[in-house]
């Protein structure tokens, strides 16, 4: 099974013709409340591909908690280890202007309470998982505790990049990052060395500093998958991208579901790029994720 330990948010999406300047008031054109948070997104992506998924996280004692859990529930994610706490449900305030340019403010709220102690309360669930999936949207000591309790494979999507101890990062198998995040992780692990600009070099340096395997996501170009056995580039299908928000989370969820099913890392990346490409073709994050039926024809091709 897959256990995701991570963030749960509501994305408040507002549309404006242009972004206001400080002190300025503008009338926007629309508003939506959508379920989000990297942990929840990845849990939904994995569950919709058939994995048995549990989510460990926290929401507030508020009506936003219901919004946050809507698609988790319909996807069949086990939320019995999602605690209700006295902070508000996490919120991402996303403004998108007519050029598609966005600004985002995240209020962690309940997610900020997912430190070591809260994670420890789910130690048994974490230890029993074949795959434990982590991101950078809960406190560093909560991530470290989850990595310590895991006995299965740890998928660490260090996004956003936060400061983690080297042992936790080295527990990742794989570490899933984009180019920007890879550079920041290297700067943390080997601060005295310059950070390379070439993708292949970023990957080989991460392996060199002790990460067991690395998956570097490259947007429309797909991903690079690397471990001690070798390094492979995996191309993404060519699609018309409508909204890339949440594509990285779809990718990580798909990858984790495949690893839990027992396939090799390279095989898992081959499905994950297809799932990422599927997710960019429609609006939204969780609402754009495929089910097994959506990706089956390409899986068998
Ligand atoms: P992040 O948003 O975390 O930086 P990426 O942009 O690398 O992540 O996207 C993750 C995955 O989604 C990619 O590896 C790829 O499979 C897919 N993807 C993203 N953008 C596109 C695109 N324009 N065309 C096809 N696939 C895409």
UniProtKB/TrEMBL annotation:
<feature type="binding site">
    <location>
        <begin position="248"/>
        <end position="249"/>
    </location>
    <ligand>
        <name>ATP</name>
    </ligand>
</feature>
<dbReference type="Pfam" id="PF00294">
    <property type="entry name" value="PfkB"/>
</dbReference>
<feature type="binding site">
    <location>
        <position position="243"/>
    </location>
    <ligand>
        <name>K(+)</name>
    </ligand>
</feature>
<keyword id="KW-0479">Metal-binding</keyword>
<keyword id="KW-0963">Cytoplasm</keyword>
<feature type="binding site">
    <location>
        <begin position="9"/>
        <end position="11"/>
    </location>
    <ligand>
        <name>substrate</name>
    </ligand>
</feature>
<dbReference type="GO" id="GO:0019303">
    <property type="term" value="P:D-ribose catabolic process"/>
</dbReference>
<protein>
    <recommendedName>
        <fullName>Ribokinase</fullName>
        <ecNumber>2.7.1.15</ecNumber>
    </recommendedName>
</protein>
<feature type="binding site">
    <location>
        <position position="288"/>
    </location>
    <ligand>
        <name>K(+)</name>
    </ligand>
</feature>
<feature type="binding site">
    <location>
        <position position="245"/>
    </location>
    <ligand>
        <name>K(+)</name>
    </ligand>
</feature>
<dbReference type="InterPro" id="IPR002139">
    <property type="entry name" value="Ribo/fructo_kinase"/>
</dbReference>
<comment type="similarity">
    <text>Belongs to the carbohydrate kinase PfkB family. Ribokinase subfamily.</text>
</comment>
<dbReference type="GO" id="GO:0005829">
    <property type="term" value="C:cytosol"/>
</dbReference>
<keyword id="KW-0808">Transferase</keyword>
<keyword id="KW-0547">Nucleotide-binding</keyword>
<dbReference type="GO" id="GO:0005524">
    <property type="term" value="F:ATP binding"/>
</dbReference>
<feature type="binding site">
    <location>
        <position position="178"/>
    </location>
    <ligand>
        <name>ATP</name>
    </ligand>
</feature>
<feature type="binding site">
    <location>
        <begin position="217"/>
        <end position="222"/>
    </location>
    <ligand>
        <name>ATP</name>
    </ligand>
</feature>
<dbReference type="GO" id="GO:0046872">
    <property type="term" value="F:metal ion binding"/>
</dbReference>
<feature type="binding site">
    <location>
        <position position="279"/>
    </location>
    <ligand>
        <name>K(+)</name>
    </ligand>
</feature>
<comment type="similarity">
    <text>Belongs to the carbohydrate kinase pfkB family.</text>
</comment>
<comment type="function">
    <text>Catalyzes the phosphorylation of ribose at O-5 in a reaction requiring ATP and magnesium. The resulting D-ribose-5-phosphate can then be used either for sythesis of nucleotides, histidine, and tryptophan, or as a component of the pentose phosphate pathway.</text>
</comment>
<feature type="binding site">
    <location>
        <position position="284"/>
    </location>
    <ligand>
        <name>K(+)</name>
    </ligand>
</feature>
<dbReference type="InterPro" id="IPR011877">
    <property type="entry name" value="Ribokinase"/>
</dbReference>
<comment type="pathway">
    <text>Carbohydrate metabolism; D-ribose degradation; D-ribose 5-phosphate from beta-D-ribopyranose: step 2/2.</text>
</comment>
<keyword id="KW-0630">Potassium</keyword>
<dbReference type="InterPro" id="IPR029056">
    <property type="entry name" value="Ribokinase-like"/>
</dbReference>
<dbReference type="InterPro" id="IPR002173">
    <property type="entry name" value="Carboh/pur_kinase_PfkB_CS"/>
</dbReference>
<feature type="binding site">
    <location>
        <begin position="37"/>
        <end position="41"/>
    </location>
    <ligand>
        <name>substrate</name>
    </ligand>
</feature>
<feature type="binding site">
    <location>
        <position position="249"/>
    </location>
    <ligand>
        <name>substrate</name>
    </ligand>
</feature>
<keyword id="KW-0460">Magnesium</keyword>
<feature type="binding site">
    <location>
        <position position="137"/>
    </location>
    <ligand>
        <name>substrate</name>
    </ligand>
</feature>
<dbReference type="GO" id="GO:0004747">
    <property type="term" value="F:ribokinase activity"/>
</dbReference>
<feature type="domain" description="Carbohydrate kinase PfkB">
    <location>
        <begin position="1"/>
        <end position="291"/>
    </location>
</feature>
<feature type="binding site">
    <location>
        <position position="282"/>
    </location>
    <ligand>
        <name>K(+)</name>
    </ligand>
</feature>
<feature type="active site" description="Proton acceptor">
    <location>
        <position position="249"/>
    </location>
</feature>
<comment type="subunit">
    <text>Homodimer.</text>
</comment>
<keyword id="KW-0119">Carbohydrate metabolism</keyword>
<keyword id="KW-0067">ATP-binding</keyword>
<keyword id="KW-0418">Kinase</keyword>
<dbReference type="InterPro" id="IPR011611">
    <property type="entry name" value="PfkB_dom"/>
</dbReference>
